[in-house]
Amino acid sequence: MRIDTIEDVETGLEALLQLDPRLQVIRDYAGQLPLRRNPAGFESLASIIVGQQVSIASAAAIWARFKQHIDPLTPENYLEQGAEVWKLTGLSRPKQKTFQHLSAALIGGQLDLPSLTTMPVNDAMAKLTAIHGIGPWTAEVYLLFAEGHADIFPSGDVALQEAVARAFGFDSRPSAKELSFLAKDWSPWRGIAARLFWAYYAASRGKEAAPVMSVM
């Protein structure tokens, strides 16, 4: 199963509510679920890496400089620009190294992003997290919003942890491990459950709540 259109979101949501009727109240509060899809490829993955562990505002500023200085935005051009240009983008040294490793893997064929679309999730995750600096959250968000995988729930995402805690009346946010266990009940539509809880979080806070990929 894949999530490529808003119709896929609606189909998945209907199936999800049948799996767990408790979510109907959350759905009513959250309102319309967005598709939030971006084209698969280097640019989408790059935007997620840029946004790791920084605020949405900071990510947007760095991303703008990144696209300005790495133009065209390709793995080959990233490596060609070198350390002085990388510094101008505002990227931290660890992220500069991540892009070095990612670019080299793409150019050398060790990583083929188009193939991740039809690859089993676990295999796709393994391919991405084998790249130095790409962790589970980055891989999950990319596979969910760029490759269209339907059964992914980024349990390490703080907004999702907070949303689930609020929705179910927990005293504190569940850990990534605890949330991953809870999310098993929403398989094979965990990607829809993630969209639902992000929408719920946004509605409860009265502002946008989504992975940093939305800076594109």
From TrEMBL:
UniProt GO BP: base-excision repair, AP site formation; DNA alkylation repair
Reactions it catalyzes: Hydrolysis of alkylated DNA, releasing 3-methyladenine, 3-methylguanine, 7-methylguanine and 7-methyladenine
CDD domains, sorted: ENDO3c
Keywords: DNA damage, DNA repair, Glycosidase, Hydrolase
Keyword Ligase: no
Domain named HhH-GPD: residues: 50-202
GO cellular component, one term: cytoplasm
GO molecular function, one term: DNA-7-methylguanine glycosylase activity
Presence of the UniProt keyword DNA repair in the record: yes
EC number from the UniProt entry: 3.2.2.21
Pfam families: HhH-GPD
Protein's name in the database: DNA-3-methyladenine glycosylase II
Organism: Paenochrobactrum gallinarii
